[in-house]
């Protein structure tokens, strides 16, 4: 079993391009100096913030969070829940850290499916060899008035790249994708000189820390890893599109 230090080291090495948060208070800075060397060589703490609960300090490494006390004597790994309301404060925080700017997604490099008026919009990262993605694709067929941008994110098998290229290079990409994902009918072999955006999409997925498929992104920048049923998806789209309080 991996030690906490080993796990945190691997986490730190997998996170790049992240910068420290706003200026810390003197106490928070002291906690950082105390806790960072105790996490293992190579681990970089991105921020330390005092929380409003139990006098704990949030220690952020990328989009992952753990907690410590003022003397960095103890480390707490897990979720902080409000025992009365059931609110998961850790999940709220990690969801916020994982938000993206939807308008920055390179939608021209995605498959685009429009149903009905297309007013509701989501983006999905899927691998052609992903069973859960095929299940989720069936769920999407039950939606109306939606635009779905699908990024073919080849992470599960070497031949995912081949399947994605054949689909991208098809005369009707959306039809070829659905034929494969819903009916198991493979697209014809693509010409050798047909170029695809798949390396670009792979790099994007790594940057956004997409570690599994399907991964769904909503217009408010929130995400949902894994397949969802229609009711959950409808609720998430409605929440994403709802006006935010000032």
From TrEMBL:
- An example of a Pfam family matching this protein is Thioredoxin_2
What is the residue range of the signal peptide feature?
1-21
Q: Which residues form the Thioredoxin-like fold domain?
A: 114-235
Location of the Disulphide bond isomerase DsbC/G N-terminal domain? 23-90
The compartments listed are:
Periplasm
Give the chief site where it resides: periplasm
Q: Does the keyword Signal apply?
A: yes
For this UniProt record, give its keywords in alphabetical order, as a comma-separated list: Disulfide bond, Periplasm, Redox-active center, Signal
Highest rank taxon of the organism:
Bacteria
Q: Which InterPro entries does this one have?
A: DiS-bond_Isoase_DsbC/G (IPR033954), DiS-bond_isomerase_DsbC/G_N (IPR018950), DiS-bond_isomerase_DsbC/G_N_sf (IPR009094), Thiol:disulfide_interchange (IPR051470), Thioredoxin-like_fold (IPR012336), Thioredoxin-like_sf (IPR036249), Thioredoxin_CS (IPR017937)
Q: Which family does it belong to?
A: Belongs to the thioredoxin family. DsbC subfamily.
Role summary: Required for disulfide bond formation in some periplasmic proteins. Acts by transferring its disulfide bond to other proteins and is reduced in the process.
Q: What is this protein called?
A: Thiol:disulfide interchange protein
Phylogenetic placement of the source organism: Bacteria, Pseudomonadati, Pseudomonadota, Betaproteobacteria, Burkholderiales
């Amino acid at each position: 079993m991996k030690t906490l230090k080993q796990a945190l080291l691997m986490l730190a090495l997998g996170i790049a391009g992240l910068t420290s948060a706003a200026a810390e208070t003197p106490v928070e800075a002291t906690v950082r100096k105390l806790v960072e060397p105790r996490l293992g060589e190579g681990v970089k703490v991105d921020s330390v913030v005092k929380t409003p609960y139990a006098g704990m300090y949030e220690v952020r490494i990328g989009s992952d969070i753990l907690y410590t006390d003022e003397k960095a004597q103890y480390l707490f790994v897990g979720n902080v829940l409000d025992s009365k309301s059931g609110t998961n404060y850790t999940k709220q925080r990690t969801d916020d850290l994982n938000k993206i700017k939807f308008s920055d997604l390179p939608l021209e490099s995605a498959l685009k499916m429009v149903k009905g008026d297309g007013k509701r919009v989501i983006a999905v990262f899927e691998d052609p060899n992903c069973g859960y993605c095929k299940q989720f694709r069936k769920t999407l067929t039950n939606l109306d008035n939606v635009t779905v941008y699908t990024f073919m994110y080849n992470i599960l098998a070497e031949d995912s790249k081949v399947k994605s290229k054949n689909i991208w290079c098809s005369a009707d990409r959306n039809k070829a994708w659905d034929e494969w994902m819903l009916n198991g009918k493979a697209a014809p072999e693509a010409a050798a000189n047909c170029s695809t955006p798949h390396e670009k999409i792979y790099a994007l997925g790594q940057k956004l820390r997409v570690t599994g498929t399907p991964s769904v992104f909503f217009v408010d920048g929130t995400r949902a890893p894994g397949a969802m049923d229609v009711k959950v998806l409808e609720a998430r789209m409605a929440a994403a599109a709802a006006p935010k309080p000032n």
